[in-house]
Amino acid sequence: MNIKKRNFPSHIAIIMDGNGRWAKKRGQPKIFGHKEGIKAVYRSLQFALFNNIKVLTLYAFSSENWRRSSIEVENLMFLFEYILKKDIFNLNKYNVKLKILGNKRKLHCTLQKQIKISELLTSKNKGLKLNIAINYGGRQDILYGIKNIINEILSGKLKMSDIKEDTFSSVLSTRFLPPVDLLIRTGGNIRISNFLLWEIAYSELYFTNIFWPDFDNNSFIAAINQFKKRKRNFGK
């Protein structure tokens, strides 16, 4: 399903919230909701490809999500690895370039290996840029950027007077991405949850009560239609 491309967002980011509550309403364990949430990821990918969205960034697992039960975390990590193995060739077939955002060092070695394989396989693709944030935190990424800036100053590669917004953007893990045009959060919560804090400075924000497993094409179109009605002034 496509819609008119006038005033269309180029980079859409989604906080995929509500899997656990969706499962609870049905008397099922959280992993059941996460598996249904994968179907919503597929739908969103298809929508993005069909409508020529340039960049899609999905918040899958935050740096704070390690506080969840060990069983849920273990199930999620297994699910991430399984999906990467199963679907990476389809992503490559459709010219999707995959990038995993976040600190990969804490992930299981087999998942780290699969991420490397997946990113390498799709690295030269020119179509949709799909970014999945796993063990990602906006504050942590800003700290990472500050440390990079300090190292460049100490090594003499950079002067204090050289530091501007573009300079700082260039040392973040998201340096290869354009700013986010539209941030969508499902699940009814109205907060950012440490996601892309630097990158969403002038994003349009859209919150919906729909749980992520129920997010479909009509839900996506509703979010984009809201975006298209808004006037972006960027401080002017």
Polypeptide structure, described:
This protein is an alpha/beta fold and 236 residues long. It has one domain: Decaprenyl diphosphate synthase-like (Undecaprenyl pyrophosphate synthetase). 43% of the residues lie in helices and 14% in strands. The chain has 7 helices and 6 strands. A 6-stranded parallel sheet has the order 3-4-2-1-5-6, sandwiched between helices. Strand 3, helix 4 and strand 4 form a beta-alpha-beta unit. Helix 2 runs parallel beside helix 3 and helix 3 packs parallel to helix 4. The protein is globular. It starts with 10 loop residues before the first strand and ends in a 7-residue tail after the last helix. 34% of the residues are buried. The model has no long low-confidence stretch (mean pLDDT 94).
Task: Kindly list the characteristics that best describe this protein.
236 residues, alpha/beta, Undecaprenyl pyrophosphate synthetase, 7 helices, 14% strand
